[in-house]
Please model this.
Amino acid sequence: MSGGQIAVHDVDTARLRMEELARRVEHHRFQYYVLDAPEISDAAFDDLYRELIALEEKFPDLKSPNSPTMRVGAPPNTEFKQVKHRVPMLSLSNAMSNEDLEKWEERIVKGLDRPVDEAKQLAFACELKIDGLSIALTYKKGEFVEGATRGDGEVGEDVTLNLKTISVMPQALTPLPVTADGRILLAGEATDQPGVTMRVPDLVEVRGEVYMPVSAFQTLNEALLDNNEPGLANPRNAAAGSLRQKNPRNTAKRRLALFAYFVYVTDELIKQPPTHVESLDFLKRLGLPVEKNHEVVHGAAAVKNYCDKWGAARHGLDYQTDGVVVKLDDRSLWSELGHTSHSPRWAIAYKYPPEEAETVLEDVQFEVGRTGAVTPVAILSPVRLAGTTVKRASLHNSDQIARLDVRIGDTVIVRKAGDIIPEILSVNPSKRKEDSLPFVYPTRCPVCDTLLAREGDEVAVRCPNTYGCLSQRERRLKHWVSRDAMDIEGVGEVLVAEFVKNDLVNRPSDFYKLTIDKLMALPRMGLKSVEKALKNIEGSKTRPLSRVINALGIRHVGTTMAELLAERYPSIESLRNASVSELAAIEGVGPVLAETIVSFFLEPQVNVLIDELKQLGVRMEDDVEERNANALPQTLAGKIFVITGTLEKLDRAEAEKAVKDRGGKATSSVSKNTSYLVAGASAGSKLGKAQQLNVPVLTEDEFLELLAAE
Ligand code: IVH
Model:
């Protein structure tokens, strides 16, 4: 029996079994309906479901009103339910300076009624303040049951389904060794003492911060900008937007992460650890991600040192921090001090000063992208800001320039929006020169002098001279050779610019007409690099169709869309002949994009280019048979893998892809359904969980052997 059906004789066994079945049915429904990523076969799901119905019929009194049998399917949530927080989510009061920190320490010393000398040496837990959005997670009997945003502190929004898509978030907690009187054993303590049992708390409330790693934010923004969609201001906004998606499938596409920083245990058998730092360790051992750079220090001066140390170092982390949160480490002092209606008295947020600087706007230059969008770029007198020297800043668009009334020669305030993209925040009017003139936005393309146009209600101003404008041409050629497009190694942006300058390449087909002689005539080109470039250009002729589609640079068609189109249309001919209605019917395309694609293929220049490329031997179709033949034998079909720790020969994404390519599934949390756990170096709680559930554990080498097996 695939559901692991068990004989049920008494009410207690029935209750337990029904609870488990309900949980499993809920879980698999979520995987199936919401994420489109089922982990078990339909038949296995039906078994679980039928077993639950049978038990509910036999024990009607035990049937829960929330039973999954009461609902049909699990369509994506469209409205966020309101959730009242069990413990209100307070905010923190801020310290903006050393002085504020010292005053806070003084208030604590007074409030605690201790001898001053003793109080002056209080232990403070210092943590980085993660700039994301705070979240409350509820785990019951070790299972994640509910997650909510902060909202107004009393009532938040239920974002459980979206949180379930965050790969680092455990769906189940790892049991820990607990003594008979409820003390959680420390990491090194022997567990084979009398009375020690492995437990998860009955009810824990975890508080933490959901954030978007800086690297994920940058990738996301590049993709958005590539598709001419507005970029996001900073990782915090990106995280907030991603977490509040109506459809969890969209949240799942964003790489969100989480740090837990707080725990409330409500349990008869497990006691809350006595200090904050031990609570952090407890969270970590339960399987929750905890930021590792926290420290316990004594006295306000040491707190200040910690803040200073991280003021600069924080820019090297893959998450944004806007300050340091300082908490009294001894939790018993918390109730002694209490809280105001807004914030606890035993904690404070030291905020780093905003990353802003004053400098002079020397010039405004205009860049013309490959789709003709004209974007203003501020050229600044170099200024140090948040770890880098800033010389350029985005001015976004003409509306922004008008709104700021920024003029050349003005003293401006630049800020790194979320510390990453510098932008002009405002003008310092007191430093404006008397003879300054309002900025006049160009009406003609700065590169080809064509009259600029604004399309519909777009904010972007475009140069409509698609094929004549040198800048657009050059950008398109650079896109053609780029990594995600035809991936021509040895032909980078600098070389493409050189080709254009020397009139060797005007459109992509010209790459395939280059010869040794032509290239050797260029300055600074040796025979070796020429041969390499030509070999790689030749090699690019057999790229898969999806790359060609991407390389053509259809507006709003990036890597993913190109793959989708190539899957549907195995040749450029079939795509070129597709109708608007046919394209619009493809899930993920829609009418606007369909229209864009069809009009792209109606342009005479595009057709000349495609024909020429074909003639030059660029393959513009996928061999469907070959595509299928290239598919690996599905040796891992039906197997569910969890990959944890650091692997040496593959990175995690490669390992997961290798599993998927062979028909298997890679998930992030260990459960009874897991077929194998692949454990790399410093594997954490997942390893413990796998051992406890008797899930086979593979080393990296064993995993590679399994992949190689026919
Ligand atoms: S503790 C009683 N610790 O900062 C409040 N908060 O400005 C307990 N935050 O709402 C919060 N990192 O969203 C705490 N290590 C950390 C934090 C942190 C970021 C956020 C949190 C809070 C806000 C207060």
In short: The pocket of 2-(butylsulfanyl)adenosine is lined by residues 90-92, 127, 129-130, 134, 209, 261-262, 325, 344, 347, 349 (CB under 6 Å). The radius of gyration is 30 Å.
